[in-house]
Specification:
- It is a single chain.
- The protein has about 775 residues and is an alpha+beta fold.
- Among the domains are: about 55 residues, no CATH class; about 45 residues, no CATH class; about 40 residues, no CATH class; about 150 residues, no CATH class; about 100 residues, no CATH class.
- About 45% of the residues lie in helices and about 15% in strands.
- The chain contains 28 helices and 18 strands.
- Strands 5, 6, 7, 8, 12 and 13 form a six-stranded mixed sheet that branches.
Length: about 775
């Protein structure tokens, strides 16, 4: 094997053996594992230099900003402060930091406790005569000087307590249960409150730029649901009789005007807000909802509908979280395991949130309980928490409860907005790794394991080769755009309200420059395409795109931003000029995507020539692989608990009794899964699992020809329909689909979703 293959094999083995399921080359336990693996492979002679090189390749860029000063655990100072510390370590007054396992530096006090960041004081000089300024001043609350000044000047009618104010007026109606100082803010007292408030303030899209850290996996919708449902559950502790309607209205008013609130898109199937619908109809006026008489007002209402719909999702989720938590507290109290004075702590799924959960477990002075009242070992629980978001712990959020005696109840949640949400999203490369782990733990003979892994590797390589060429399809589109009507292209760019021009600027100036609005410098690779006598800061949108198209045609490197800047303009031009050919990237890629889907099916068929024993039942190896993917992606291990229970020393066993799957208020647990699938556990599931190949495609248009066939281009294709022959007969579980999540020519992922049959069963339970 070559060098790259060897490294891939080593990291794959490390991932398999580690608790986290992925390599952390800065973590001592992982370095130890690498050392053990190399010893087993008879490579002891090279292990020191290899480990050194791997660590260097995985070096955290933040390491260049800090210098170690020793200690146990190790402490760090900023590089700029290192000389001062060196001169007089005992009297050094500068900032000190520690470093987490994931390489994150956090400021600490001299005793090692985390230093809480200073809360930024908000300015009170905003102009109340502007909508943004007025909205901000209102968020400060009636006790703020700027708020009082705005009341005196007549910009605010009173203290926002007028219950007769119409929905949609400048003055937001605050329910009696809301303190105006809480408007737009998270108030739960958890170690991750700052990160949740930052998410509210800057939105999902601005989080990484603002903080330098990545948000929890997902998007704006999942972030809103995960954070707000936890906050609403706290409101229900004080006002348990609030209805879903009331809670949704409260959420909309409290969080709707935040940056994260404004990022939300409407979930169409949910109940509407009557006041918003009145305003929407009024904005449509003599026109329609597609061409309203008052477009600006209509656009604003559409945004508010998005926030309101996600508020309904969060409200339904919160009600279920609250019910479950209160019942579990009562059960613990009735068994004399918990005190009477309880406090609830909702956590988000960001890295800071995970660190805060670990801190709460570490510092618990009493016993730590799972939801069924089972005591859990702290070390097991910490390992489980650190794996949050994947592997043995698929949770997105958590709810902890403490009592006056220092006892702790832990609960974890996988939050979805609705039952039809994608339950799992995996790249083909990720699936290849998963398949290898399933093959290894199966009862296949050693010889058959090797053969199945070879099949897995071969098909994965062939599919990856096709995917690698997706971006290349944008080159002929770029060439075509250079030949088309320049005025039409210029109009498309200048009227863009989405990300089309943003992608152009990212490709030409870089994302950092675009975010700063600094369009003055371009990489030297663009110089030959710069129009004569035109400075980079003076380029028109049309000139920018022509530079990109010429570069692409000269076999320039195709970055993601460059590809998007080409394909999006092409698709828009095609939409406005339907007779134009050669611009539709979806059509160009349609046959290639069909080929990848067929290869996925062939892989399973080929593997099925080998059979393995599942508790006395012979199952094809390929079918077993997909059954295991179902168990992972749909969290079906919940079916095994009970009779299985938490086992000390096995953190993965915590999942069965502690994880709640909450899909917009529809809770799916082990009991629900057993009832809907008609099997008692994952072993029976594997025995009765079936795959069905159906030619079901998704298209970019619903138009059909005279024969009833769709005329649009294929954007996705169902790879398999998942079926189980359990009690009650054949039941359709869900689907695996192959679709792009990175734009028309981006790499395509496999997604897993529940069937309508399963969704309806979950709702009925």
């Amino acid at each position: 094997m070559n060098k790259n293959e060897f490294i891939d094999e080593l990291l794959s083995e490390l991932s398999y053996r580690s608790d986290e399921g992925y390599p952390i080359l800065t973590k001592s336990t992982h370095i130890t594992l690498i050392s053990e693996i190399l010893d087993e492979w008879d490579m002891s002679g090279i292990k020191n230099i290899l480990i050194e090189n791997l660590i260097e390749a995985d070096k955290n860029p933040d390491d260049d900003k800090y210098s170690g000063i020793g200690g146990n655990p190790s402490r760090y100072v900023k590089k700029s402060d290192y000389a001062k510390w060196q001169q007089n370590p005992d009297e050094f007054t500068g900032d000190k930091f520690d470093k987490s396992d994931n390489g994150k530096y956090s400021q600490v006090e001299d005793d090692g406790t985390k230093k809480e960041p200073e809360v930024e004081k908000k300015p009170t000089t905003f102009d109340a005569s502007t909508p943004d300024g007025l909205s901000y001043i209102k968020s400060l609350g009636p006790n703020d000087a700027a708020y009082q000044a705005a009341v005196k000047a007549g910009h605010i009618k009173d203290t926002d307590t007028d219950d007769d104010t119409e929905a949609g007026d400048d003055d937001r109606v605050l329910p009696k249960v809301m303190n105006s100082n809480e408007l737009g803010k998270v108030i739960s007292e958890t170690g991750d409150s700052d990160v949740k408030n930052k998410m509210m303030d800057v939105g999902y899209g601005g989080f990484e730029k603002e903080t330098g850290g990545k948000p929890a996996p997902g998007g704006p919708g999942s972030a809103f649901n995960e954070i707000v449902s936890g906050e609403l559950a706290l409101i229900l502790e004080k006002f348990p009789d609030m209805t879903e309607d009331e809670l949704a209205d409260y959420s909309h008013k409290r969080f709707g005007n935040t940056a994260l609130g404004r990022e939300q898109k409407e979930t169409k199937t949910l109940a509407k807000n009557p006041d918003l619908e009145k305003r929407r109809n009024a904005a449509a006026g003599t026109g329609s909802h597609t061409k309203p008489q008052f477009p600006a007002q209509h656009k604003q209402v559409e945004k508010e509908r998005g926030t309101y719909s996600k508020s309904r999702v969060a409200a339904a989720s919160a009600i279920q979280k609250h019910k479950a938590t209160q019942q579990r507290i009562k059960n613990l109290q009735s068994n004399k395991l918990f005190g009477t004075e309880t406090k609830t702590h909702p956590f988000y799924g960001a890295s800071v949130s995970i660190d805060s959960q670990v801190d709460m477990v570490t510092n618990a002075n009493g016993n730590v309980y799972l939801p069924d009242g089972t005591g859990v070992d702290k070390d097991d629980l910490i390992r489980f928490i650190k794996a949050g978001g994947g592997g043995m712990n698929p949770s997105d959020t958590a709810t902890f409860v403490t009592d006056e005696n220092g006892n702790l109840l832990v609960q974890f949640h996988s939050d979805k907005t609705k039952t039809s949400d994608i339950q799992d999203n995996s790249t083909l490369a990720f699936e290849e790794v998963n398949y290898n782990s399933y093959i290894e733990k199966s009862s296949l003979s050693d010889e058959d394991k090797v053969k199945c892994k070879e099949i897995n590797k071969d098909y994965s390589a062939r599919m990856s080769a096709i995917e690698a060429k997706y971006n290349d399809q944008s080159v002929p589109i770029a060439n075509k755009l250079l030949q088309l009507d320049k005025n039409k292209i210029s109009k498309i760019l200048d009227e863009d309200e989405g990300t089309m021009v943003q992608n152009v600027n990212d490709a030409l100036y870089g994302e950092k420059a675009r975010k700063k609005g600094a369009f003055t410098k371009i990489n030297k690779k663009w110089n030959k395409y710069l129009p004569k006598g035109v400075k980079p800061e003076d380029l028109t949108n049309l000139q920018k795109t022509e530079m990109l198209y010429k570069y692409a045609n000269d076999d320039g490197k195709l970055t993601a931003a460059l590809v998007k800047s080409i394909t999006k303009v092409g698709l828009q031009y095609k939409e406005e000029n339907p007779d134009t050919i050669g611009l539709d990237v979806n059509k160009i890629l349609s046959s290639q995507r069909k080929e990848v889907v067929e290869m996925q099916r062939e892989k399973i068929r080929t593997m099925n020539s080998f059979t393995t024993d599942v508790d006395g039942v012979s199952v094809g190896a390929g079918t077993l692989m997909e059954a295991e993917e179902n168990i992972r992606g749909f969290h079906l291990t919940l079916m095994d608990y009970p009779p299985k229970e938490y086992t000390k020393g096995d953190p993965s066993s915590i999942t069965g009794t502690s994880l709640d799957i909450n899909m917009g208020g529809v809770v799916v647990n082990g009991e629900v899964l057993r009832g809907c699938l008609g099997v008692e556990n994952t072993t029976e599931f594997k025995q009765k699992f079936k795959l069905v190949e159906e030619e079901k495609l998704t298209y970019d248009s619903k138009d059909k020809d005279e024969d009833g066939n769709y005329t649009g281009n294929v954007t996705g294709k169902k790879v398999f329909t998942y079926v189980v022959d359990g009690k009650g007969g054949r039941k359709e579980i869900g689907f695996k689909s192959y679709r792009s999540k990175e734009g028309a020519s981006g790499k395509t992922n496999n997604t897993m979703t529940y069937s309508t049959e399963m969704q309806n069963c979950f709702k009925s339970k």
